[in-house]
Amino acid sequence: MGGTTEPDTAAARGSWALVTGSTSGIGQATALRLAEDGYAIVVCGRDGDRAAETRRMIESAGGRAVDLVADFTDMAAVHRLVGEVRQALSGEPLDVLVNNAGGGGFAPTEETTEEMFDRAFNLNVKAPYLLTGAFAPAMADRGRGAIVNVGSLSTRMAASGTSAFQAAKAALSMLTKSWTAEYGPRGVRVNSVDPGFILTRVNEHMRDMFGNYLASLPAGRGGTPEEVAEAIRFLVSPRASYIQGAVLSVDGGKNSVVVM
Length: 260
Ligand SMILES: NC(=O)c1ccc[n+]([C@@H]2O[C@H](COP(=O)([O-])OP(=O)(O)OC[C@H]3O[C@@H](n4cnc5c(N)ncnc54)[C@H](OP(=O)(O)O)[C@@H]3O)[C@@H](O)[C@H]2O)c1
Fold this sequence. Notes:
Elements lengths: L9 H4 L2 E5 L4 H12 L3 E6 L2 H13 L4 E5 L5 H15 L4 E6 L14 H29 L2 E6 L12 H21 L4 E8 L15 H6 L8 H12 L10 E4 L10
Parallel strand pairs: 1-2, 1-4, 2-3, 4-5, 5-6, 6-7
This protein binds NADP nicotinamide-adenine-dinucleotide phosphate.
NADP nicotinamide-adenine-dinucleotide phosphate binds next to helix 2.
């Protein structure tokens, strides 16, 4: 028998995960879980203080992280972020990309200005597109990697007053399939997680208004960021090794039943 073989874990490989929008909510919960799984984390968002706080949370639990700041409605900032990530990793592999930062575009169509529309598509589609184009080829060259796009229940079900957001998330959902076709054969698994109503900062102001609606869901309540993060953690892990191009709904059953 030979000597001991080092286990093929994220920590052993020195793997990094870039989680966009990890300064709060679903992204932060995901960053903390992937750090527990041994990934070094690139934390990023717009708010530098909360980015640094998330990095400190990871470090105080024994993990490794860097914190970077970028506004994804500005493509120059996204290009700058790509350079900063490469510099921070100095040759260590980025094996996971979670395209989580998103939002915007919440207005009736006739009140959505071109600028609002462009911001929604920049944030939810173009920034993930540029990041994937920047980092997926190196994953494919190494023959391993996982990308998770955080979509929305609204990629498949419409609600009034959020058309630009819905169109952007639907485009991102299609990109999960496009990237599965492009990178899947070279070892990069790409999947989507579609949250329903998750209790985060974005909908704090709507919780009372949605009380009856949430009670009527099969789950009987809104979801937590941690519940979405667990789905992302699973899709990134080797336990999901045969799952590619899939959409995992984390919506308390909303997608499956007619709520009366
Ligand atoms: N919560 C829900 O019910 C729900 C439902 C469906 C889909 N989603 C999706 O889930 C994802 C996470 O949302 P969340 O609920 O966790 O919201 P959240 O707590 O507000 O977190 C959003 C994250 O995205 C970042 N972000 C927002 N705009 C950005 C921009 N222009 N540039 C760079 N980063 C930006 C934020 O960074 P800063 O705070 O630092 O600016 C923050 O880290 C989003 O894609 C959202 O569309 C959420």
